[in-house]
Amino acid sequence: MSISMDAKARKKFLAILDDALDLTIATNRADGYPQATVVSFVHDGDKIYLGCSPASQKAQNMLRDDRVSVALTAPYKSWDEIRGASIGGRARRVTETEELQRVGALMLARFPQVAEFMKSGMMEETFVFRIDPEVISILDYSLGFGHTELHDGA
Questions:
Q1: Whole-model pTM?
Q2: Residue 113 DSSP label
Q3: 3 state DSSP class of 151
Q4: How many angstroms separate the CA atoms of 154 and 106, rounded?
Q5: Does residue 1 belong to any structural domain of this protein?
Q6: Contacts of range 91-100, beta carbons closer than 8 Å, 24 or more positions apart
Q7: Residue 106 placed within a domain
Q8: Residue 112 belongs to domain with CATH number
């Protein structure tokens, strides 16, 4: 699904993704309760990537139910600088070699410490998930307290 967003909103959204290092992802547990987890991420355009242990609850949740919600905030010093995004989308496990290599390069560029994990072999055991947004709400307090812009595939 393609998100309907003008060039100005897309630029704002991508800047938030560039500036934030962590996000909170909410997945659906088997018992029906949501589970929120903080995780580092990279992105390629509006596609968001994260890695996790195959045994982790979030991985198991996403394999069972691909619906996720994501929230992230760029760093700020005062409330009138708050910029963030809430995203509803689908999580897909990445298995294609070319995409995994591209994501690995993005992770290494953003988080150089990933090199140590690569040397130890831990990355080979990591599941990589791609979040494909279906709805994006951009938060921008510079335009007023609580100002949001909703963008979806409609």
A1: 0.90
A2: T
A3: strand
A4: 30
A5: no
A6: 91/27, 91/62, 91/66, 91/67, 91/129, 91/130, 91/131, 92/66, 92/129, 92/130, 92/132, 93/62, 93/63, 93/127, 93/128, 93/129, 94/49, 94/128, 94/129, 94/130, 99/130, 100/128
A7: yes
A8: 2.30.110.10
User: Cα(75)–Cα(21) distance, rounded to whole angstroms?
Assistant: 9
| Digit-coded pLDDT (tens) for 98-136 | 999 999 999 999 998 877 766 665 556 789 999 999 999
In a domain, 2, yes or no: no
Beta bridge partners of 152: 135
Tokens describing residue 121 = 């072999």
Q: What are phi and psi of 147, to 5 degrees?
A: -65, 125
Count of the separate structural domains present in the chain: 1
Residue 128 forms part of a structural domain:
yes
Check pLDDT > 60 for residue 18: yes
- φ/ψ of residue 43, rounded to 5: -145, 155
Which range of residues forms the domain containing residue 81?
7-152
